[in-house]
Amino acid sequence: xxxxxxxxxxxxxxxxxxxxxxxxxxxxxxxxxxxxxxxxxxxxxxxxxxxxxxxxxxxxxxxxxxxxxxxxxxxxxxxxxxxxxxxxxxxxxxxxxxxxxxxxxxxxxxxxxxxxxxxxxxxxxxxxxxxxxxxxxxxxxxxxxxxxxxxxxxxxxxxxxxxxxxxxxxxxxxxxxxxxxxxxxxxxxxxxxxxxxxxxxxxxxxxxxxxxxxxxxxxxxxxxxxxxxxxxxxxxxxxxxxxxxxxxxxxxxxxxxxxxxxxxxxxxxxxxxxxxxxxxxxxx
Length: 284
Ligand code: AMP
Known about the structure:
Blueprint: E1 2-4, H1 7-19, E2 24-29, H2 35-47, E3 50-55, H3 65-69, H4 75-84, E4 89-91, H5 95-98, H6 118-122, H7 126-141, E5 145-149, H8 153-165, E6 173-177, H9 197-202, H10 205-216, H11 222-235, E7 239-247, E8 263-271, E9 274-281
Parallel strand pairs: 1-4, 2-3, 2-5, 3-4, 5-6
Antiparallel strand pairs: 7-8, 8-9
Helix pairs in contact: 7-8, 10-11
Bound molecules: adenosine monophosphate.
């Protein structure tokens, strides 16, 4: 595995590889890697000639400075895990490499409705920050395939839209990998490292609520299910941002279901300081 810290050096290296006909797959991460990240890295390794993983905790996507400050860092362990996954390249840039002209936003990404709802509504500016970093990373890495986790359902939609906005639809293909879970159902997440033992025991309730929705959507109205699951999470000690049932393709909220429309249920809730998100596709 080759470790790059400099953007230009990496770009030159990857341009050489592309000239030799090598297909490149790319997995952007913020580190504190778990098996969900490694699934992306291993899939990327299998499907491409060169697999590149980046670790960069992107300051511009944190709307909450406390969340940024407390974001877990496990760099040595991460480097070993990526090497073990067989990836050829690790990109470990500094803030200056990613934002050579400063972190102030110079370009607005017109995401429209997608950033007014759910994560966009509760984390103002978050998706603009995601677009800033992914735009820059795509410019540096120029991958053929980009590996993303369904765990961040709305983020996958935002990044697909970004690829379109950048006119790169024929250059970069987004590959969405399934959400990996702990044995009790909790979606793997770097932020789980911040849960204390009591919070960790309560945390799978989010997945249970989503599963309840999946089981009961044929017999109960979406609006009633959302209210019931929000209340059940509040009772267990969560501060709920949302429990939503939405169109799987547009994320428009659904209150009445015709039994045919493809749906996704999504939730975001805090356990004390730690914010957790999860989703399930309800393809019945
Ligand atoms: P992050 O480091 O949180 O920015 O995540 C990097 C990538 O890993 C994103 O595409 C995430 O959606 C994906 N990811 C995070 N958690 C999981 C998981 N539990 N299963 C699969 N992919 C995940």
